[in-house]
Design brief:
- The protein has twelve helices and no strands.
- With about 270 residues, the chain is an all-alpha fold.
- It starts with a helix and ends with a helix.
- Helix 4 packs antiparallel against helix 8.
- It is about 85% helix and about 0% strand.
- It has one domain.
- About 15% of the residues are buried.
Length: about 270
């Protein structure tokens, strides 16, 4: 009787000890949760490339090569974006002040606008109204020029902070690549014990979906960034490379790229 009670007490104490250790690990790793998640997604998405390198070199060398390649593809553009933004901020501040200091006129409404059925006349009249009121727009917005510039700087500082998180994610991804096979086998064994014999098929489907989603998002973002940079260059706007890189990173969001080229279009219209 006493032996059973002692065994039960030991199990309870062991469970409490393990629970405390697990809770402590969660508390310690919580600030790095986003970096760990990004490292896992990045490692899984690039695992075929790592396997191709692994057949030609050691696991350590292949992990170093993958880390360097990802750094070239992600961290260096972010660092370039941050440094270019800081260097160009005085020039953009002077341009914003010039924009808010002088009068600008909208061009007359195009002919096709009036010919739109039902709403054409109203749209043309609204266009004319804006063309008369736009002279006062600069004077109205001038007190907020400093706040606008400060908001832009805060935005770019957040991008720089994202670059730091990305550096941490690459550091973690190096160890994921290095020990990815054993980690994958352990994870598969745990999920198999939970989900049964069909866990391998489910993992294959989920993995293909994740990899396809990552490839699609990154490919679309890169194309949008390139097209944005080309558009800025063709229209004569300054810093086409910087805004192309910014559009590529923001294009990961559903409405990211328009946050770059819509203000540029309004700038061209006002200029």
């Amino acid at each position: 009787m006493m032996d059973g009670l002692t065994l039960t007490t030991e199990r309870i104490m062991l469970a409490l000890l393990l629970g405390g250790i697990a809770y402590g690990c969660v508390i310690v790793l919580a600030p790095f949760s986003s970096a760990i998640l990004w490292a896992g997604v990045l490692t899984y998405a690039t695992w075929p490339v790592f396997q191709h390198l692994r057949r030609r070199m050691s696991a350590l060398a292949a992990s170093l090569v993958m880390t360097c390649l990802c750094a070239v593809g992600f961290v260096i553009p972010l660092a370039f974006l941050a440094s270019t933004t800081i260097a160009a901020s005085p020039r953009w501040a002077s341009r914003l002040n010039a924009l808010f200091s002088f009068s600008h006129h909208l061009p007359p409404p195009p002919g096709w606008l009036t010919n739109i059925p039902m709403v054409g006349q109203d749209l043309a009249g609204q266009w004319q109204h804006w063309s008369h009121d736009v002279d006062h727009l600069g004077a109205s917005l001038r007190p907020y020029a400093g706040d606008i510039i400060q908001s832009l700087l805060v935005l770019f500082m957040q991008v720089a902070n994202g670059a730091l998180h990305l550096v941490m994610a690459l550091f973690i991804a190096f160890f994921f690549w290095l020990s990815g096979s054993s980690l994958g086998d352990t994870l598969k064994a745990v999920i198999t014990r939970i989900a049964g014999p069909h866990a391998g098929r489910h993992l294959h489907i989920i993995g293909g979906t994740v990899r396809g989603t990552v490839y699609g998002i990154l490919g679309t973002a890169i194309i949008q960034g390139i097209l944005t940079g080309i558009g800025f260059w063709l229209t004569g706007l300054s810093e086409p490379v910087m805004f192309g890189v910014l559009a590529a990173f923001l294009a990961v969001l559903p409405i990211g790229a328009p946050l770059v080229w819509v203000p540029a279009s309004l700038w061209l219209l006002a200029d």
